[in-house]
Amino acid sequence: MPAHLSPALVLALALTGCNGKPGDDTAPATPKFPADFMWGTAVAGFQVEAGCPTIAAEDCEDRGSDWYQWVTDPDLIAESANYLSGEPLADAPGHFELYNTDLDNAVALGTNSFRTSIEWSRLFPAAAAEQATSVDDLMQYADPAALAYYNAYFDAIVAHGLTPLVTLNHYTLPLWIHDGKACHEDPDNCTNRGWLDLARIKPAIALYSGFCAQQFGDRVDWWATENEPMAIVLSGYLLPGEDRTNPPGVSRPDLAIPVAFNLAEGHAAMYDAVKSYDTVDADGDGVDSMVGAVPNLVAVQPLDPDNETDVHGAADLDYVYNRVYLNATVYGDFDRDLDGVAEEHRDDVAGRMDYIGVNYYTRITVRGLNVPLFSEYPITDFYPEVLWEEYPDGIADVVNLANSYGLPAVITENGTEPTETSGDTFLRPHLSALLGAMDAGADVRGYFYWSLTDNYEWNHGMSMTFGMYSVDLTTKARTPKPMAAVYTDIITTGEP
Ligand code: IFM
């Protein structure tokens, strides 16, 4: 006993638990994820639906989207600069038919939530849908089989005890609003111009979103409007390349910047529509809907932290990549000339975000440039020296960035290509960093691993295998990879 403590004081300290011994309230407790944390896996319709084992391909595949055209059109595949694998969609996992198996597997992991998407073109395959004047009017154009499918699908998700988080637009657009091939060939004169034609896409995507909210809002409270707007901009309109090409796959800075702001306006219109039409509190928490967008945020660092040009370039990349879209959608501040200062404030866009869905994959290490990448935009004074690097600590940076907008974050995607044989080098470090951020005060409501199963990775086909479950391309059998047990352990213990 220290000489200056009387026996009575020692007894009092022991009884109040201030002695650093077991039972001590003030001893630092091991941080754990909260009991109500959303633990999930994520998929997207286009990437998993095709490849049904017994349902005919024409019913299983949604053939009405720009992405179906992008990955199957022989002319587009033949063009090497499109980096299209040409892999048949029949190789995809067949979730359209096998979703109950997949939901069983999601439950077996111990997850309580599931992120998936609705395919606009499956629900509304015909161009006539654009004639609709209201959400109620749109009903006549909905494909009855697709509507029945989505109703059964959301019933099944809920019956499995999983909270659905539903993305309304995970890249794909109906061909009747975006002909990616025609716009690839002639982006200035194509007729169905997708995100280039705000006057058409904004009302149409708002009605579609309102329709989904009206039809499925009794089972869905968590909605995501757009997935990775910057991927659409970069891989579709600015720098399509080996990593990713999105339709229309053109390099046109003059089109890319307007598309980024059209996406921001689209988000706001979708938000308003969901808020108006989802009037049911499906999970009984007193809130009918939580609506957010899903940017892919990156952790940005200067190549040399002591080099001013690199530091400046890193800040500018962070601004352009991470913040321009969020500034527009959260604050209504539009910086269309990308000079770092918003010249336009839009009340009709501002404030339409209940949470920020964060897809986190990488750190980007930036070399500063003295001459901008794109001469029209002096702020593009950066070169991503290291473009792709798994960097677990960066997950803390991106949730803090999201929180800096005054909004809660949900990790809507975070993933890797786990092997069949190795243990885990990904989940524990990322989730430790995430928990560390939360312990320090970050407001994060959930984590969705990308992806539940191997899936059709856009232009790469089935060659990139992000799934926690592998998929046999022929039998469609799912097999858990070693990482699955690690995820279950973390979910069960609450400790990474
Ligand atoms: O497969 C994609 C997903 O559709 C969007 N985020 C990144 C994933 C892995 O590349």
What does this structure look like?
The structure is a single chain. The protein has 496 residues and is an alpha/beta fold. It has one domain: TIM Barrel (Alpha-Beta Barrel). 38% of the residues lie in helices and 15% in strands. The chain is built from 17 helices and 14 strands. It has an eight-stranded parallel beta barrel with strand order 1-2-3-4-5-9-11-12, surrounded by four helices. Strands 7-8 form a two-stranded antiparallel sheet. Helix 16 (427-439) links the parallel strand 11 (409-413) and strand 12. Helix 11 packs parallel to helix 13 (253-277), helix 13 runs parallel beside helix 14 (308-331) and helix 15 (394-403) packs parallel to helix 16 (427-439). Residues 1-23 have low confidence and may be disordered. Residues 44, 47, 228, 359, 413, 450, 457, 466 line the site of 5-hydroxymethyl-3,4-dihydroxypiperidine (IFM). 5-hydroxymethyl-3,4-dihydroxypiperidine binds at residues 44, 47, 228, 359, 413, 450, 457, 466.
Could you name the key traits of this structure?
disordered N terminus; 496 residues; binds 5-hydroxymethyl-3,4-dihydroxypiperidine; two-stranded antiparallel ribbon; 14 strands; TIM Barrel; alpha/beta; 17 helices
